[in-house]
């Protein structure tokens, strides 16, 4: 009788337990309505901030004709090169003004 209980526990109980928690894990991985609403709000805020940054950059460019926007790579690739180029540009501008 004890062997029968052990076999039932191993071949029926254990797979049922594993599948039960796998199903719960998969159903919990979806976005809820509140999550989607929060993502939409964040996307809207990011769009507004981008528009504000563009406006500020246009104002600075209008007030300072020599100002040049330095683009930043979101992946972080080549930022050092742009920094060197910016320093070179500043050095060249200093030489011109002398």
UniProtKB/TrEMBL annotation:
GO biological process: phage shock; regulation of DNA-templated transcription
UniProt keyword Transmembrane helix, yes or no: yes
Membrane-spanning ranges: 6-23
One Pfam assignment: PspB
Highest taxon of the lineage: Bacteria
Keywords: Membrane, Transmembrane, Transmembrane helix
UniProt protein name: Phage shock protein B
Organism of this sequence: Allosphingosinicella indica
